[in-house]
Amino acid sequence: MLEKIKTEIPGLYILKPKVFSDSRGLFVKIFHNCFFDDLGLRTDFVEEYFSTSAKGVVRGLHFQTPPYQHVKCIICLKGAIFDVVVDLRKNSPTFGKHLTINLKADEPKILYIPEGLAHGFMSLEDDTIFLNKTTTVFDAECDAGIHWNSCGIEWPDIPIILSEKDKNMVSFNNFDSPFK
After folding, report:
1. Which of 50, 104, 119, 125 is most buried, judged by most C-beta within 10 A?
2. CA distance linking residue 121 with residue 17, whole number of Å
3. Is the model's pTM score more than 0.70?
4. What does residue 160 show for φ and ψ, rounded to 5 degrees?
5. What are the site positions for Participates in a stacking interaction with the thymidine ring of dTDP-4-oxo-6-deoxyglucose (predicted)?
6. Residue 168: which residues within 8 A CB-CB, separation 6 or more?
7. Structure confidence by residue, pLDDT tens digits, 69-126
8. Is the pLDDT of residue 26 over 90?
9. In this model, does residue 36 exceed pLDDT 90?
10. Distance between CA 143 and CA 84 in Å, rounded?
11. Where are the beta strands (DSSP E) in 18-150?
């Protein structure tokens, strides 16, 4: 029921769920313990939340530091996002590299993000809904990020809306990663 697609970043996968469609709309199962288990993916998610964003909102690039680092599963439920992950694991062959992908509600894909990667996205449409599932709960002391525009990412050319927190994140070049 889920197709697991490897990316160039170790442990980062695109999951394509089976989509059932008829005149009523879509039916998409985005999580099932057995499916994840069969694919060798973690199933111990403990927190789930969603955000709504106007077109141009950038959220990220966020992560949690040890001991509250986590695996994330994300999906766009409404609208579209330009999604970004950056490898922060010092011993990874892709340390400092990033992957971008457009996620659209009408073409469901799940991004499975391992520990040690920063994540962010830009909303490409008004009223976009983004769902995030994590293997640890939010911890304010471990909440961290790097500056959204410090990793050579080519963001879409639309006016950007940022929080003060995200405007003031440390650049990637000045970040001392705690991830091995």
Report:
1. 119
2. 21
3. yes
4. -100, 140
5. 138
6. none
7. 999 999 999 999 999 999 999 999 999 999 999 999 999 999 999 999 999 999 999 9
8. no
9. yes
10. 18
11. 19-22, 25-28, 47-53, 58-64, 72-78, 80-87, 98-104, 110-113, 117-123, 128-134, 143-145
